[in-house]
Amino acid sequence: MSEASQGTGLRWPSLLAGIGIMLGITIYPLGITHADGSADHGMATLLCWAMAAGMVHGVGYVPRFWLWRWLLSGWACLLALVGAVVLKLT
Questions:
Q1: Which pairs count as long-range contacts for 80-87, CB under 8 Å and 24+ apart, including other chains?
Q2: What is the pLDDT of residues 2-42, one digit of tens each?
Q3: Integer Cα distance of 21 and 84 in angstroms
Q4: Nearest CA to 55 among 9, 7, 16?
């Protein structure tokens, strides 16, 4: 088996998280705004990071550089989602 094909394939939890975040932001963009209607940049950053990590990890792409590999991992998706929930609750 070649190195390029090892460990690739769809990872459904990450992919569904990425698609869910994408649809959520599209359907309800007020979720990433403050009460006064101004943009919540922290929430947008965390959700977009979680979405990107979920999509990249979910389709099976594994970056070679260690930093990108970590920032676009399933664990990073989860961490960003937890950060978004904590930010929303505070």
A1: 80/46, 80/47, 80/49, 80/50, 80/53, 81/17, 81/21, 81/46, 81/47, 81/50, 83/46, 84/43, 84/46, 84/47, 84/50, 87/40, 87/42, 87/43, 87/46
A2: 445 455 689 999 999 999 999 999 999 999 999 999 999 99
A3: 11
A4: 16
Contact between residue 18 and residue 55 where contact means Cβ atoms under 8 Å apart: yes
Q: Could you tell me the pTM of the whole model?
A: 0.86
Give the pair of three-digit tokens for residue 87.
């930010």
